[in-house]
Every structure is written in structure tokens, then in C-alpha cells.
């Protein structure tokens, strides 16, 4: 009896509590999941090993799926042949599986995703195709980063090195096309673009690939992005090497297929590596962890066991390993919730399709939704890092290593993480512990050894060898021909701007063939906005000349660095000896122009603007904006008035310019002239009697116009900078635009920019008048006080007889002695309303206002002093 009780007691202790017992009992002893991989591929082979390693670990770990053995049925599929691969995958779906690791290839993933949705079987896929979104395919669970992030990283790399255009070579299937589409979006966001896209089929012959590479080499861009699989990718790289496209000037960026292959394949020959020197590639970033190193240490044993001893771990192996763990953990939670593995026939498959395809053999995983839910909620640290799914269905914290192939190995030059969306030399997991900082100042990579064994960053583009002659539009000027015009005799274009352009071109390290096309008749000045517009419309490849870089023009076109300063300048006829009212105001108004950058005009005065470009349209040009803004000096209101064009007079030549200025507004001339500085300077060099009156109130320059994102523009800008630094620009300037002929002695007009003593006489006058008035007021107050003091009873009677002579003398003395011993005020009165208002803390005796009653601040409070 006692023994019986004891046995019962022991049994009670040994047997688990009721609930756990139930759930354990409900658990099947074996659970099958499937996997669709391509065993032959490097990634597929590594995945096989990773799955086996994961199974070993899971089945020996009592904390996960205790009592249940996880098994994986693996199926080999063919990725190259989409149809065959699809049939193999569909056949596999007929077996009752509750989750699938894979498919590996994006093409098959697309098809299988539809089926998985119908059968409610979660797909744990590392296909990177960005279009396999979890919205369209809820049962597609991406266990590796999407190409969206990889392409963002590539675009960040392109942008970091300031390349503007790239060539994309891709495998023409779902994976390649969708990857390049994502790249296109990412580059566009950073104002870069794919200038040439070329796809090829996985069955392309060597000849096709050579033709492809030759077509790429004809293109302008030297930055080539290779988004393919390992097989064709290596073929292309080795052919490119033979075509000497792996040399100086080229940039190759391979997506993660290259790093995955090089990581996993231990037997890549050294020659292959030496053929790829300087190539950049990306690798999904796997942080260092114990689980990672555990997997690496058991890898060689497991890989030998499964006949893949030539394979090492790659990023994908870690993702696959974690996928199996994800399923195991989700299943655990699934069973804990009372989940059961049952299947039912899909009535839609049975009734509608079926037929000879035997699709009715496929069955629906009844509680697939529950399992999917558990998978999406997992949160654990695996071999690949934190395994947790964001709302988008992606693993959180996508990050990539940026790798440079150098010597016989790979060198990590930095990292990209979605956390900051920047390139950085700081490990992503270090960044995660700080708040995200997207400051571009943090962007940095270690030095890269580029193809051709150079550390110097390639320019990223070359003048295309099949390039046509550049058609360059050049203004054919009528006036100020020194800047640019057509030579009457030779018919060629000449002038200051032409010299700057040819000198800058000579600095480029490559030849550029071009021809100048005169724009305009030469009998009047051409319309510059139209010229720039023609560049935008691709009628010209560039436009050079005296083209002002204005806001409206930079919206549509790119400009080089300015080669000469410009900006609008005011010329006003200020003579030294003029003392009329206009001259009195002038120094102030002109200073106001300089300070505020606004054009000042006195009402009634007429401004005629010299318009040497006869046909220039005023509408929309900065000139118009300036002449339509008036500032009424006293009232600082800015009014915008539209001056009708009839009030503007266009003057055709520098001679008219001088004449109009000299005659002045009263005699049909102009009062002020607004024009760009270089013209004004040239004009002044031959017209000694005139000088600049007001300085620039816009700051800009002249540059050469190019279409958007033209690489030539960037190189020319650099060339112009070096011309400026070595003094060549000044030499060209002196050759064409002589200045300094006029000496200061014969300058009739003065530069009123300078402040002289007489500039201030108006101010002195105002101050003097103010002082006199203040003094008068003071005396009037004092005299009134004095009179009241003398006659306290009655106010001063108006009919009081005038004082006598002696009386007047006495009165004077009395008055002065009153001034000397001023009597204190008779009584004080505090104005409560005023003292209650807050007053600024002041020193003991500050007079605020001189008026009646006199208010004084005394010891922090305002008091009224009655007289
Ligand atoms: C694997 O590769 C071998 C040799 O390269 C080939 O014969 C075989 O057909 C391939 N298998 C698959 C499934 O692609
Ligand atoms: C590893 O690379 C070598 C040389 O490129 C190749 O012959 C071999 O098939 C590769 N191994 C695997 C598993 O891809
Ligand atoms: C796993 O199950 C066995 C018996 O089925 C039990 O003895 C063991 O304690 C369980 N382990 C855990 C961690 O639950
Ligand atoms: C590995 O290869 C050997 C010999 O070819 C074969 O006997 C064995 O079954 C293979 N093992 C696996 C896991 O495929
Ligand atoms: C599903 O259909 C197959 C044949 O069409 C049949 O053998 C099987 O019993 C059915 N299963 C269920 C659960 O109805
Ligand atoms: C996931 O786990 C980590 C640590 O293991 C924890 O800090 C985090 O809060 C968890 N996230 C969620 C959503 O449960
Ligand atoms: C990547 O970053 C963007 C913006 O910073 C964020 O909206 C998105 O959720 C991130 N993706 C993942 C998977 O964390
Ligand atoms: C971001 O980084 C920049 C450069 O290191 C630093 O100046 C800035 O303060 C940082 N911003 C924040 C919010 O931490
Ligand atoms: C250039 O040609 C125009 C008209 O064709 C003529 O008026 C002008 O004098 C010529 N100038 C020179 C320098 O030959
Ligand atoms: C204000 O006056 C008092 C005496 O009337 C003097 O002690 C004090 O220093 C004065 N304060 C200032 C700021 O002059
Ligand atoms: C202001 O007045 C207070 C008392 O009314 C006095 O204590 C203080 O010294 C005075 N301050 C000055 C600067 O006179």
C-alpha cells in the first residue's frame, strides 16, 4: 500500500503537468519540411550543407521541438530552364509539406509563390528579387536581404564616387530585370542614371557575350554594374579581361553573386582572381557572433559528410541555416498553440483545373496561416544576426559589406546599412546602438585599388570612341565682339570665350572633336535663352560664350564653373561737382543699392536700361525682375511694379551707351544703366569719362551650358579651375578685354561706391537742423518755466506791457541766476498707470522723453516731475 502510494507519488512527479502533457502528446514525432534548391550551384550546395547542419543542431537541442524530429526533403531544380524548374517544383508541392526552404532562383520563386499562396505553405526563400513582395505573395518569406537594399547600396557607391552615368549588364530573367529596375530607381533618387542597359540570356554563346562587351566599351560610361549569376558572370569578367576592359579607367561593380561564389568556392584558381583585380562587389553583412563561429567550425565536417567538401560558408549559408531555425521555432510556437498538421483537398484544384496535370494531388495545409503568423513573429539571434521580420516582410537591418578584390583575396573597404543609408567604415551593428544619423559628413570608405592597380578614383566615363563631333552653339554677337563673334574674314568663331573654351579643352586628358555653329545673324545680338533652350532640346551638344548662369537656365541645363564673374552693375552719372538735390540724395541711395541689392528709383525719374542685346526678351529674365522692383526709401515697403517695355529703351552699341549717359535724363538720355559687369568693364576701358556708380547686386558668372548630367561639363569645370589657378584665364582676359587705359585724372564721373566726406554733408545737415531745433525747444521750455516761476499766481498775461530797458537787464540777470540755482519741483506725482507697466532696468537718471509732463525714470520706476 505504502509502496503503491510511493509509486503513484513518483509517477506524479515524473509526469509533466496536464497542459504540457497534452501539447506534447499532440505533437507529431516527425515533421517534414521541403526544400527546393539547385544542388549544382555554389549557393545551392552550400545551402544543402547549411540545412543539414541546422537539422543536426535543432534535433539535438531539447529546447526547441522537444520530442519532434524535423526532417527536410530536398529537391533539386533546374534554374536555367524555367519550365523544367517549374515542373520539378510543382511536382514537389504534391507531397504534403508544411513549409519550404527555397526556392533558390527568383524565376521559380515567382511561380511557386502562387502555388504556396493557394496551398498555404510558407516559402522560406533567399531569392533576392525585389518584386517578390510579401503583399502580393503573403506566403513568401524572404530570409535574406532584398535586392532593393542591395541596389540602394550600389547607388550609394556610385553617388559616393560622384559618377553620374553607369552601364548595367544583367541576366535577362526575373532576377536580373527586376534587380536593374530597382537599381534604376535607386540611382534616379540620387540623380544618377543608367545610360546603357544590356541583358543577355543564360544560354548566350561566347560570341554573343563578346559582342555585348564590345557594345559596352563603345559607350560613354566606364562604370559597369554586373547583375548576373555566377556562371555567366565569370564568363563575362574573363572575356572583359581579354578585351582589356579590366584596365585603367574602368569600374566594375558586381552584385553579391560574386562575393557569394568567392566565399563559398575554395577552389577558385589564382588566375581567375588576378583577372578580376579592382572589381567591387557586395556581400550581405553577417555580424560576428558565437553561433556564426560555431557553424563555421562544424562546417567542414558536415560538408564532407554531404559530398560538398569543396564548399565553404557564404552569407547565404547563414541565412539558410537561420531559415531552418526560424521554421523550427515557429513550429514550436505553433504546436504550443495547439496547431495540428492536417491537409485537405483544394476544391478549386479538383473541380476547375486538375485534368491530366493531376493538380488535385496537391493539398492545402489547413493551419498554414497560423504557422505563417508564427514565422513572422519569430525573434531570435541566429547565425546571420538578429532574425526578426519588419512590417515590410524583410529581415530587419539589411546591411552589406563593400568588398574590393585585390591580390588573391577580398578586402572589405566599408559597409552600407539601411539604418543610415550611408557608406561607412563603422560596422553596422555599432551604428544600431546609436540614433540614426544620415549626415553625409559620416560617409566614408577605405581606399580602393581600382582596375589597372591604381588608387586614383576613375573618372567613370570616357569620350565614346565612336563619338560624333560635338555640335557647339556659339553666339554670333553684334556688339561687344571681343567676347565672341564670327570673324568676317575667316568665318571662324573668335573671342575671349572661345579662347577660354579651347584652352580648357586642351587640359582634358582625352581628345574632343567639335565644331562651332554660329547662333544669330551677327547683325543683332542673339537670344541667349533660346540658345540654352536648344542645348536642352539636344539641337546643340553644348553652348559656349558669354552665357550668364541664371536660376532659370540652371533648372534645365548644367553649367560649368563660371570663368568670369558677372552680375549686374549700375552706372549713374554722378559728377563730383554736382550739388543739386539729386546729387544730395545719390550717395545714400547708392549705398542702399549696395546694401540691400535693390534698385532705387525716385518717383518721376525715368530709367532707361541699356539693352545691348537688342532682341533680348525681358520677361522672366533677372534684368526684368530688377527693373520692376522699386524701393521708396522713406517707406521701406517693397512694391513690385511692372514697367511697360515702352519705358525701356534698348541701346544698340557702346557708343549709344556713352551718348545716353552723357546727355542725362533731361536731354533725352538715361539716368542709370544696368548691365552685366564684363560688358561694363569693357565699355569703361574705352570710355574714360564714365565710371561705375553702384556695385553688383546679383552675384553670378558666365559659364558654358551643357545638357543635364553631361560628364564633359564636370571635366571642363575642373579645367577652368586650373586655368584660373595657373593665371591662364587672366592672360586670356588681358588679351581680349584690355582695361586700365583710363587714368584717374581724366575720369569725369566718380565711383560713388566710395564714401567721401562730402557724401555725408546731407547727414550733417540733418543733424545740425535737429540740434538747432532741440536747442530751441529747450530754451522755450526753460523760459516758460522761468516765467511761471516769476509769476506763480497767474499765467503770463498777454496784455502785459513790454519791460523797460533797465528792467530787461534786470530780467536777464534774474533769468541767468534762475538757471544757475534751478528750483526743485514743487511736488511729485507718480503716474500709477505708467509705473505699473514694465520698464527696462536703467541707471539712476535716464531721460526717456522730453515733453510735458517730463517723465523720468528714477530708481527703476517712472515718475512724473511736475514743473
Ligand atoms: C549538375 O552538373 C553536372 C555537371 O556539370 C551536370 O551533368 C548535371 O546535369 C547538373 N545537374 C543539374 C540538376 O543541373
Ligand atoms: C569552384 O570553382 C572552380 C573554378 O572556378 C569550379 O571548377 C568549381 O566547379 C567550383 N565549385 C563549385 C561547387 O561551384
Ligand atoms: C524534453 O522531453 C523529455 C521527455 O519527452 C523531457 O524529459 C525533457 O525534460 C524535455 N526537455 C525540455 C527542455 O523540455
Ligand atoms: C557521397 O558520395 C559517396 C560516394 O559517391 C556516396 O556513397 C554517399 O552516399 C554520398 N553521400 C551523400 C550524402 O550524398
Ligand atoms: C484528396 O483527393 C485524393 C484523390 O483525388 C484522395 O485520394 C484523397 O483521399 C483526398 N483527401 C482528402 C483529405 O479528401
Ligand atoms: C526581440 O528580441 C530582442 C532581444 O532578444 C529584444 O530586445 C526585442 O525587444 C525583441 N523584439 C520584439 C519585437 O519582441
Ligand atoms: C530601411 O530604411 C527605411 C528608411 O530608413 C525604412 O523605412 C525601412 O523600414 C527599412 N527597412 C528595413 C527592412 O528595416
Ligand atoms: C551626425 O553626424 C555628424 C557628423 O559626424 C555630426 O556632426 C552630427 O552632430 C550628427 N548628428 C546627430 C543627430 O547625431
Ligand atoms: C564685316 O562684315 C560686315 C557686313 O558683312 C561689315 O559691315 C563689316 O565692316 C565687316 N567687318 C570687317 C572687320 O571686315
Ligand atoms: C545711483 O545712485 C545711487 C545714489 O543715489 C548711487 O549709490 C548708485 O551708485 C547709482 N547707481 C548707478 C548705476 O549709477
Ligand atoms: C532703490 O530704492 C530702494 C528702496 O526704495 C533702495 O533700497 C535702493 O538702494 C535704491 N536703489 C538705487 C540704485 O538707488
Automatic annotation (TrEMBL):
Glutamate-gated receptor that probably acts as non-selective cation channel. Residues 471-739 form the Ionotropic glutamate receptor C-terminal domain. InterPro entries: ANF_lig-bd_rcpt, GABAb_receptor_plant_PBP1, Ionotropic_Glu_rcpt, Iontro_rcpt_C, Iontropic_Glu_rcpt_pln, Peripla_BP_I, Solute-binding_3/MltF_N. This is Glutamate receptor. It is a multi-pass membrane protein. Gene3D superfamilies: 1.10.287.70, 3.40.50.2300, Periplasmic binding protein-like II. GO terms for cellular component: membrane. Residues 819-839 are annotated as: Disordered. SUPFAM superfamilies: Periplasmic binding protein-like I, Periplasmic binding protein-like II. Residues 469-740 form the Solute-binding protein family 3/N-terminal domain. GO terms for molecular function: ligand-gated monoatomic ion channel activity. Belongs to the glutamate-gated ion channel (TC 1.A.10.1) family.
Amino acid at each position: 500500500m505504502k509502496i503503491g502510494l510511493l509509486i503513484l507519488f513518483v509517477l506524479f512527479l515524473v509526469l509533466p503537468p496536464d497542459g504540457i502533457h497534452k501539447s506534447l502528446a499532440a505533437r507529431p514525432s516527425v515533421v517534414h519540411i521541403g526544400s527546393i534548391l539547385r544542388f549544382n550551384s555554389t549557393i545551392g550546395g552550400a545551402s544543402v550543407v547549411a540545412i543539414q547542419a541546422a537539422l543536426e543542431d535543432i534535433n539535438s537541442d531539447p529546447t526547441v521541438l522537444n520530442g519532434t524530429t524535423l526532417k527536410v526533403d530536398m529537391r533539386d531544380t533546374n534554374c536555367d530552364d524555367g519550365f523544367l524548374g517549374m515542373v520539378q517544383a510543382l511536382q514537389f508541392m504534391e507531397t504534403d509539406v508544411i513549409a519550404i526552404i527555397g526556392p533558390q532562383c527568383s524565376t521559380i520563386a515567382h511561380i511557386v509563390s502562387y502555388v504556396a499562396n493557394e496551398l498555404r505553405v510558407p516559402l522560406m526563400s533567399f531569392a533576392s528579387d525585389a518584386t517578390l513582395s510579401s503583399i502580393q505573395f503573403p506566403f513568401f518569406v524572404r530570409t535574406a536581404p532584398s535586392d532593393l537594399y542591395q541596389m540602394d547600396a550600389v547607388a550609394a557607391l556610385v553617388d559616393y564616387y560622384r559618377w553620374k552615368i553607369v552601364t548595367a549588364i544583367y541576366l535577362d530573367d526575373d532576377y536580373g530585370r527586376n534587380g536593374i529596375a530597382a537599381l534604376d530607381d535607386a540611382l534616379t533618387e540620387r540623380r544618377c542614371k543608367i545610360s546603357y542597359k544590356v541583358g543577355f540570356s543564360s544560354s548566350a554563346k561566347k560570341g554573343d557575350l563578346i559582342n555585348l562587351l564590345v557594345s559596352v566599351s563603345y559607350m560613354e560610361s566606364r562604370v559597369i554594374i554586373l547583375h548576373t549569376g555566377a556562371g555567366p558572370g565569370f564568363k563575362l569578367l574573363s572575356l572583359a579581361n581579354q578585351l582589356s576592359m579590366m584596365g585603367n579607367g574602368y569600374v566594375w561593380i558586381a552584385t553579391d553573386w560574386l562575393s557569394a561564389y568567392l566565399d563559398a568556392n575554395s577552389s577558385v584558381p589564382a588566375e581567375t582572381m588576378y583577372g578580376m583585380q579592382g572589381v567591387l562587389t557586395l556581400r550581405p553583412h553577417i555580424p560576428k557572433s558565437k553561433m556564426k563561429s560555431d557553424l563555421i567550425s562544424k562546417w567542414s565536417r558536415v560538408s564532407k559528410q554531404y559530398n560538398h567538401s569543396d564548399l565553404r560558408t557564404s552569407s547565404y549559408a547563414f541565412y539558410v541555416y537561420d531559415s531552418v531555425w526560424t521554421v523550427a521555432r515557429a513550429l514550436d510556437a505553433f504546436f504550443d498553440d495547439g496547431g495540428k498538421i492536417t491537409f485537405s483537398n483544394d476544391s478549386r484544384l479538383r473541380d476547375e483545373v486538375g485534368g491530366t496535370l493531376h493538380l488535385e494531388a496537391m493539398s492545402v495545409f489547413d493551419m498554414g496561416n497560423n504557422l505563417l503568423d508564427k514565422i513572422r513573429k519569430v525573434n531570435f539571434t541566429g547565425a546571420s544576426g538578429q532574425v526578426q521580420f519588419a512590417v515590410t516582410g524583410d529581415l530587419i537591418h539589411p546591411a552589406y559589406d563593400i568588398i574590393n578584390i585585390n591580390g588573391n583575396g577580398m578586402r572589405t573597404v566599408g559597409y552600407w546599412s539601411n539604418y543610415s543609408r550611408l557608406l561607412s567604415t563603422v560596422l553596422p551593428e555599432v551604428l544600431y546602438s546609436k540614433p540614426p544619423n544620415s549626415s553625409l559628413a559620416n560617409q566614408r570608405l577605405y581606399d580602393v585599388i581600382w582596375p589597372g592597380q591604381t588608387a586614383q578614383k576613375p573618372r567613370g566615363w570616357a569620350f565614346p570612341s565612336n563619338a560624333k563631333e560635338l555640335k557647339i552653339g556659339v553666339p554670333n554677337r553684334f556688339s561687344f565682339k571681343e567676347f565672341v563673334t564670327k570673324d568676317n574674314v575667316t568665318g571662324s568663331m573668335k573671342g575671349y570665350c572661345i579662347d577660354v573654351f579651347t584652352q580648357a579643352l586642351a587640359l582634358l586628358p582625352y581628345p574632343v572633336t567639335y565644331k562651332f555653329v554660329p547662333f544669330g545673324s551677327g547683325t543683332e545680338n542673339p537670344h541667349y535663352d533660346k540658345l540654352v533652350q536648344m542645348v536642352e532640346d539636344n539641337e546643340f551638344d553644348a553652348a559656349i560664350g558669354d552665357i550668364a548662369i541664371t536660376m532659370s537656365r540652371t533648372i534645365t541645363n548644367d553649367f560649368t564653373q563660371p570663368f568670369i564673374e558677372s552680375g549686374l552693375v549700375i552706372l549713374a552719372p554722378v559728377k563730383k561737382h554736382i550739388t543739386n538735390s539729386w546729387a544730395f540724395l545719390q550717395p545714400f541711395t547708392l549705398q542702399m543699392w549696395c546694401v540691400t541689392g535693390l534698385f532705387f528709383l525716385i518717383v518721376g525719374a525715368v530709367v532707361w536700361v541699356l539693352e545691348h542685346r537688342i532682341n533680348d526678351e525681358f520677361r522672366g529674365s533677372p534684368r526684368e525682375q530688377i527693373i520692376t522692383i522699386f524701393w521708396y526709401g522713406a517707406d521701406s515697403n517693397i512694391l513690385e511694379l511692372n514697367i511697360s517695355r515702352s519705358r525701356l529703351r534698348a541701346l544698340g552699341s557702346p557708343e549709344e551707351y556713352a551718348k545716353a549717359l552723357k546727355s542725362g535724363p533731361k536731354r533725352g538720355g538715361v539716368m542709370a544703366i544696368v548691365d552685366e559687369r564684363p560688358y561694363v568693364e569693357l565699355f569703361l576701358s574705352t570710355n574714360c569719362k564714365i565710371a561705375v556708380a553702384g556695385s553688383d547686386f546679383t552675384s553670378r558668372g558666365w559659364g558654358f551650358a551643357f545638357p543635364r548630367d553631361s560628364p564633359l561639363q564636370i571635366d571642363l569645370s575642373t579645367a577652368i579651375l586650373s586655368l584660373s589657378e595657373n593665371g591662364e584665364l587672366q592672360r586670356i582676359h588681358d588679351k581680349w578685354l584690355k582695361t586700365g587705359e583710363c587714368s584717374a585724372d581724366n575720369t569725369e564721373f566718380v565711383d560713388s561706391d566710395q564714401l567721401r566726406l562730402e557724401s555725408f554733408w546731407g547727414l550733417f545737415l540733418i543733424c545740425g537742423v535737429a540740434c538747432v531745433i532741440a536747442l530751441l525747444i529747450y530754451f522755450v521750455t526753460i523760459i516758460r518755466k522761468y516765467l511761471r516761476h516769476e509769476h506763480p499766481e497767474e499765467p503770463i498775461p498777454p496784455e502785459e506791457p513790454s519791460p523797460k530797458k533797465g528792467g530787461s537787464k534786470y530780467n536777464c540777470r534774474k533769468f541767468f541766476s534762475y538757471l544757475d540755482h534751478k528750483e526743485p519741483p514743487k511736488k511729485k506725482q507718480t503716474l500709477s498707470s505708467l509705473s505699473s507697466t514694465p520698464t527696462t532696468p536703467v541707471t539712476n537718471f535716464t531721460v526717456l522723453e522730453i515733453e510735458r509732463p517730463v517723465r523720468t525714470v528714477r530708481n527703476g520706476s517712472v515718475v512724473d516731475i511736475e514743473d
